[in-house]
Design goal:
Length: about 425
Amino acid sequence: MSTQSRHPLSWIPTTWFAMGLPNLVLGGTIASLLYKSLGYTDAQIAFWTGLIVLPWSFKPLWGPFMELYKTKKFYIQLSQLACGLLFAAAVLSLYTSFFFPLSVTLFFLIAFFGATQDMAADGIYLSELSASQQARYVGWQGTFYNVAKLFSNGGMVFLAGILIPMLGDRDAWAIVLAIYACVMLLLGIYNRRVLPESSVQPSIQNAAQVWRTLKDVMVSFFQKKHIWAGILFIVLYRFAEGQGIKIMPLFLKASMEDGGLGLSESTVGLLTGIYGTAAFVLGSLAAGYFVSNKGLNRGTLLLLCAFFNLPFAAYAYLAFTQATSLWVIGAAIAVEHFGYGFGFIGIILFIMQQIAPGKYQMAHYAFGSAITYFGYTIASMISGAISDYLGYAQFFMWVLLSTIPAFLVSWLVPLKQKDAESQT
């Protein structure tokens, strides 16, 4: 069977599952809990795990150059195999005397290939499927990205918690990273057989043309009406989230004496990976129905902002009470994840409808997404130092104060209705 004739469901689930793994390891709970269990401070963890995910913020800068050489399929399989080998190298780094700088370097390279994989996968989806097929299978993307979230934040964190008492921190995390290495290598081998070969010839023929196009894309992006207000919105909307989400697993893991909840990795994996992921999916589905009926207007945006930011009060409650009931802790995590899933659609729709429309709609959507990821990353990088200084209880109160700019920009940002043709 030729690659062109293979059913989209032979490659979409595995591709989007593979897209989720590097992001969830580096930007989610795995890397943070790994460093926490090996004795690094919250400030160190937040800063360096924030730094290593920066390639996802800058991926639009090298994306156009991928059109000059090979195919999107090539970049997907290359990225998956490279991530597998780099995860294997990270296993070995655990047993070196310079583990921390070496692991940060390896994780940064994984982020680079992960971001490259994302661009190639989005490109192959858009170029190889018709408009009706894109609509038909878009739900499978989110489904298997969330399967990756369940696998990582649930399964792998839970496994680490089971292994640590038996083998010790270092050996337990070595097994977890080795599993990621094997999974990524197997996905790369499988997708090499099933991914469609590109049937669309690149429209860009040389590097000079790439530079001219990239310059035009960037200039036209910053010439859009109200663009700086839009950039301020997409940065500040996630300012509190970037801080709270980064510290949350560290707070759950930290001892009671240090102001945390003293949970094991297995319990954190169970609560955040299973209950948190389920609540996130429900929140996302509910938001989709809500926005489809209401549309994006100022009232809708403010409500989405409230759902996105106010549930961080649940963590403030946990930090002040140091609750020991898993039902209470699980409920707080579920509330936050539901609000996150419900409110995150606000920034997606804003970028899609207010930032992206114009000549370079796809490129400008990528730029808008990169900027919001960059704002989130900067907030997460400073969160550890603030948490170490204030302590967990006062830190989550600070996070609630940090939501105020998001409400202000949600109220004040200009919204353009049905005038995409006027945006350049």
